[in-house]
Amino acid sequence: MSIAVLQQGIMDTIQDKGRYGFQHLGINPGGVMDRIAMAVANALTGNPPGEAVLELHFPAGKYLFEAPALIALSGGDFSAAINGLAVPMHKLLYVQAGAILTFEKLRSGARCYLAVRHGFSLTPWLGSYSTHLKVAQGGFNGRALRKGDKLPLRQSAQFTGDRHPETFPWTAATSHLYHQQGAVRILPGACWDILEASSQQQLTTGSFLIGPHSDRMGFRLNGTPLRTVRKEEQLSAGICRGAIQLLPDGQLIILMADHQTTGGYPVAAHVITADMPALAQYQPGQSLQFSVISGEAATTALWQQEKAVRYLQHASQLHLEKWLLPYELYRS
Amino acid sequence: MNPDYVIHPLGDSAVILKWQQQISMAIHQEVMKTYYSLRSGTSSYILDLIPAYASLTIVYDAAQLRRHERIPGLQWMTAYIRKQTTTQATVSFPAPRELHIPVCYDPSLGPDITEMAASRHVAIEDIITWHSQTIYTVYLTGFLPGFPYMGEVCPALATPRRQQPRLHVPAGSVGIAGVQTGIYPLDSPGGWNIIGQTPLRMFDAAKADPCYCRPGDRVQFIPVTLEVFRQIQQEQ
């Protein structure tokens, strides 16, 4: 009862909402880069919002379902296909035993999420299923999936009737869950006031390119170097996801899921929490702009987003109960 | 307790408490008192507390906070932190642990010790004595899981980071960066000046408490020979 890896992707890992409570020991939370996509895929399959999912980067792996499963894909669109037939995103899909899932082409985004109803059967490390690559813990054997791995499922989809639907007749609307205005919204950081006026202007109106060495740890930005009116020596201090650090050469780096727990570089600004999922879907080479908003507006944006995700979860649950009860044998 | 700190927002999901920005035992004591006082609190909104030299970072669940409290996160956190750190008469504050960490300073394990001695016109033994006679405080763990930032080394030992970081520093390596000394818990690239290696495992994922050192600990290094180093390594 597992999903076998027929072909290895460049970076397919198990992630959940993150491993909190250990940053004082230098153990970073990690977790999914796009928590909205995780929540959507989990909502569609009827899982709790933070259940562990498979995070895929393109090119993603090729997967054989050794048992029937109910799955959902959300986040970046990698042109998923089951047995060569294209399947839609943001839908509940029934996959038969023996089916092969492939990802053909990068259409949009940077990270695609696969949730399986009832989740994966794995051992958590320090209370989380997130893969911690540095210490080789969590997720599947503490590492990215490789050819030959068998990702065990907690439970396969059990159908009592004859009908084996391939897709179910509803789709999660997701566009309103992400900020669509183009600019990534930020709040000023601790070194904002010592940025030269022209650099403040550059940060809020200029374009930045996501550099090739951007990964789950951080997005390195290329743009006109920013300058400060004076150099400030910083003592290392605890840092957080979304912080935009100013490097000595004037370039910026945005701390993402696998960021270090402490940092010594000055912080120019912070990406608001509500916009981290949208940011996570940017690819290296894409350009990016920032716009400053107020702390209050940031909280409101996050709150609207959380409410919308919750509505989706409820709606999904209602559909699931209506559709699955006649077919699925609940064994728990 | 004297809440002698200033609260700054770090975006919309974290705040930082900052004391006077210097490496000082007295200030760090305040940081740790505040850390333990907030740790003993019951707020489910707080996800992480990260004590450092002269600051404490608090990461919180902004969405849950907004959902239940209906006021901006920063405002709520500020009030909570002030209340939690001023109303508690006594903070249950575990006594700092005294850790003795064996270190072999053989140049085969501490590739920078020879250069460090040569540049100061002293013997390698002097470097060993200077490094091992001080009792250090673990001010923070960061950079890598379980990497202890300790201070301060005696002024004669203070050395800037290497111009070219090494691509591979073995786990257990003991290094110096500025006035700090630290131990690499895992194999990693790194720019600290490596003067020795401990056979102890600084990070063991199999343990419930996987890090050997934690902020607040007091550490003394015990010089050991290569022979003893290998022996302890085998016993691990």
TrEMBL record, chain A:
SMART domains: AHS2. Keywords: ATP-binding, Hydrolase, Nucleotide-binding, Transferase. Residues 24-308 form the Carboxyltransferase domain. It comes from Chitinophaga varians. One of its GO terms (molecular function) is hydrolase activity. The keyword Zinc-finger does not apply. InterPro entries: CT_A_B, Cyclophilin-like_dom_sf, PxpC. The keyword Translocase does not apply. This is Biotin-dependent carboxyltransferase family protein. It holds the Pfam family CT_A_B.
TrEMBL record, chain B:
Residues 5-213 form the Carboxyltransferase domain. It is an enzyme of class 3 (hydrolase). Its EC number is 3.5.2.9. GO terms for molecular function: 5-oxoprolinase (ATP-hydrolyzing) activity; ATP binding. This is 5-oxoprolinase subunit PxpB. Pfam families: CT_C_D. Keywords: ATP-binding, Hydrolase, Nucleotide-binding. The keyword Transport does not apply. The keyword Flavoprotein does not apply. SMART domains: AHS1 (SM00796).
